[in-house]
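During the second year of the project, the team shifted from modelling isolated chains to modelling whole assemblies. The rationale, set out in the original proposal, was that interfaces cannot be judged from single-chain predictions alone. As a representative example for this report, we include one of the complexes processed in the last quarter. Its constituent sequences, exactly as entered into the pipeline, are reproduced here:
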Amino acid sequence: VTTLHVSIRCVTDSELVERARDGDTAAFGELVGRHGSAVYLAALAVLGSPAEAEDVAQEAHVQAFRRLASFRGDASFKTWVVRIAWKRALNRRRSIIRHVQRFIVSVEESWPEPPTALASAEHALIRTELYRDARRLIRSLPSRLRDPFLMAATEEHTYEELAVILGMPSGTLKWRVSEARRVLREKLVKLGH
Amino acid sequence: MNHKSNEPLDLAIKEAARQLVSRDAPDRLRAAVLTEIDPNRSRPHVVRSGCRIGLATSVAIALVVVVLWKTESPVQRTPNTTSQTPPVSQQAGTDVPRRSVETAVSSSSTDVSTYTASRRRPLPFISVPVELSTTDTFTPLVNLIKINDIEPSAIALSSVDIKPPIELASLNVNPIDPQP
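Output from the structure prediction step:
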């Protein structure tokens, strides 16, 4: 088992893609294992719902497998499949029903707070409120700012890869991420943080 | 991507964004994708689970449909004053044919009525074919009729005339709509 594991890890994405094109589904499964997280997070950044992101991630992988013949290798397989997921997630978000549901079902989930050495009750309370407001403000950003900002927050891609995935110039992408931070900072200050 | 800042707000913004998009992909994602794309992998799995679910679902749906059908569909009853079957007193202790569509009920009086139900609706019992043909159930029903001096046809026609309702419930008698 160990030998097999090592040998698979030594195979590049391009080789796995070639094997998958020949019908080797196990090779494609390895690709899913390598890049499934990035695909899932891209969908999560767009949709905000883990369940819907999982659906989109699965659909995107299946679509990628069926369209492997059209993969030319201009970009990496990871960028290619994440872009597929990105587009599918955008399409799903555009659905009117889902759009409405996003507003109707608004549940503030519990989030693990980062560890801190100064764990006074007052400090923890202030920090909790700050993070909660930050999450709420991020969600309320316009999608043209929120999407690039959250995709950058996944730390799965370089700006160049993100530019390909999101289909926009790298300079525009960087500006939007920076603008999102600026808007969030201003709003947090207005809230008294 | 390595935006680093010591500003508390920038740190909070960065951390909040990471909280929103830092969840791990489900472990089942890979298996789900392979199930979709690999016919050899998906076929036996889908067929097996499909059979199990399909059978259970079919049985459940069939039961629901039967229950609804028997409780909702109109009863076809034809009161008949002509007795063509032996009185109940003679039937007690004998086997009533299962799925009997015609059951004769006789009270203690001389009046003999024949209660005829359609094959689909041999009620007034919840589990009709079995309980109607079971002497254990049939006999106390007749006793109830005798005790309360109820016209046999009243059971079929209206549950209002049957008293007390507690005894009625204990006999699994299912009240039915009065026949116009």
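Chain A touches chain B through 48 residues (CB under 8 Å). DSSP finds ten helices and no strands in chain A.
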